[in-house]
Write a structure and sequence with these properties.
Elements: E1 2-3, H1 11-14, E2 22-23, E3 34-39, E4 46-54, H2 56-59, H3 68-71, E5 72-77, E6 85-86, E7 89-90, H4 91-99, H5 118-130, H6 143-149, H7 155-166
Antiparallel strand pairs: 1-4, 2-5, 3-4, 3-5, 6-7
Length: 167
Amino acid sequence: MLTRGHARPDAAAAEADTRTSWCPSGAAHAPESLVLGVRSGLDGQVTYLADAVPAAAVLDQIPEDIEPRRILRFASHCVTDCANRRGGDCTLVERVVAAYPAPAGGAVPRCHLRAGCQWWAQAGVEGCRRCPALATRHPADDELASLVADPDVTPEQLAAWTAARRD
């Protein structure tokens, strides 16, 4: 069952090894990968799945000519060699918080990943509220998403880019 912007907590995911951080913008093909949600064709927002679904259970159902990360949002374990990792921190969530406004209403989506989520541990509510706006793979012409995804771009550079677009 899909719920717009919210997912019922999943007991199995909550009992997962919380010593391992989970990335809510993770790899599709990692052995532990879960489908976190489905990207809406209307507004690009993620509609969270009510229950955790192993990615391996759905990947073979997607036609070969469709990039799974364009339509599904995956979660997988954070890895030490990730380009977005700086020490124990995720620089991607820092850029996400800097670049994307929090949604009106400020609701925090319910999520089966939260107990082990790196973004929640690091940025709390501010990271969680912006999570539905992201896709694991974005269209090439989405300049802001490309900048946010670039580990070399700082939150300050994102703020300057955003300010320049408002002028």
